Automatic annotation (TrEMBL):
Protein source organism: Actinospica acidiphila
SMART domains given in the database record: HTH_MERR
Protein name: MerR family transcriptional regulator
InterPro entries for this protein: DNA-bd_dom_put_sf, MerR-type_HTH_dom, MerR_fam, TipA-like_antibiotic-bd, TipAS_dom
Domain HTH merR-type: 1-71
Pfam entry (one): TipAS
Amino acid sequence: MSYSVGQVAAFAGVTVRTLHHYDKAGLLSPSDRSRAGYRLYGEADLVRLQQILFYRELGFPLDEIASLLEDPQANALERLQDRLRRLNEEIARLRRLAEVAERAIEVQRTGVPLTPEERFEVFGDVAFDLSYATEAELKWAHSDGQREAMARADAHTKEDWRRLMGEAATWRAELLAAFDEGEPSCGGRAMDLAEEHRLHIARWFTSCPPDMHRRIADDFVADPRAFALVVPPSQQHPGLAAYLRKAVHANAARHAGDRTDAEESL
């Protein structure tokens, strides 16, 4: 029994245009034609179409499908196993992304229900960029520190946020003063401010050893969204992000020197 292109399109849930494309590509040519020259598909054609749609659903490109159909035994199992592996990786990635989206939404909400007035009262000009939060979650997805920071942030009350943002505002004013007064980024005052920032993170979010603090500070220069979490754009000055990064690196080196001195005294 033969079927018209319209009938096959209805059976398979594809468009007539798709079947025409498969014909022109040499992937599925109808086995017969009507007296008027219309395409007619037989049972074997339908079986082949099922195979094509199966491989398409798995994400194989048309040229690879053609190769598989020409010689079904040629590496078919190996290709299917490889495709299965990639599909599982994609499924895992999408699951992580869904979790990240959920976590980023919580970050955006700051873990506590606040009205717009309360949000401004607590956070002022500091903005939580959802896109940066999402990327940060992906970047640090396997980090124990990231998971701890998010869990502790979720547990913060409105009063906790008020206190930590108050600390941050005081620290920020001191940082701006040091920068405006020309204090060297590797000097004691700047390094002490860097250490205060590191301890602030440890006190409110997660333990922050100096090497981790360096990576955080690198983001301040690499991504303006990261620095905006520390210094709102309205308070930023040219070179301030780089200044803080240098101070953090100098403070980390100071810590490393302290450890070296302690080891040499043993």
